[in-house]
Description:
By secondary structure, the protein is α/β, with parallel strands linked by helices. It has eight helices and six strands.
Amino acid sequence: MTGKLEKCKAFLLDIIFPNRCPFCGSFIMWNEFICKACDENIEKANDAVCRSCGKRKCVCGSGNTDIDMVFASFFYNDSAVKNAVMSLKLRGEINIAAYTAKDIAFRMKKENIPKPDMIVPVPMGRKKQRKRGYNQAELLAEQIGRYLGVPVDKNILFKYDTKEEQHNFGMKSREERVKGLFYKNDDADLSGKRVLICDDVMTTGATLNECSVLLKSLGAVHTAAAVCAVTELNTTLGEDA
Ligand SMILES: [Zn+2]
Ligand SMILES: [Zn+2]
């Protein structure tokens, strides 16, 4: 859909389903992604985290660093941010993804970081995605692709369908469990490419690192991660790693 049509659709939909701030639920204009109060009060992670590892307390040098760069818009520990991530994850509401996309485009320009050649979402198991109807990482990838004018490729990384849950595992076992969950399209040639990998939340970074290893094995020279939110150290969440 073209930008104009998309805007027109958003405007018309707003008459039937008024647009809401994903963080607090208050009504906002059809072309806004966040209300003024939340924009002022919620801490922005990109101002506070290390650009290399995405953590407030830098963990570069801990060994878990295949990813070259991290962009993160919010801290997941804030309950309002959790609300917004859940609205993306469970209902496919894209306001927080659109905010993150705009934010990342702004940071790249401000910090003189070259645009990636392509965007790859962290994949979801096919069965799970069919059941849910979408993959929230893809929704974010599409928004970022639109802001940066960079293509999204969903045919490079894949995830096996697995019932394995990752609750209550420490950092090490979490990393070990991520290995083998993903596979790649061996026909893809990413020689010399800079790739941006998208996911809704980054906790330990194990998932994003595993994706980065696969992309580099296909020839990628630089990988950056883009997430809506990053957890503070010593916190874990649900099924994601
Ligand atoms: Zn709000
Ligand atoms: Zn760091």
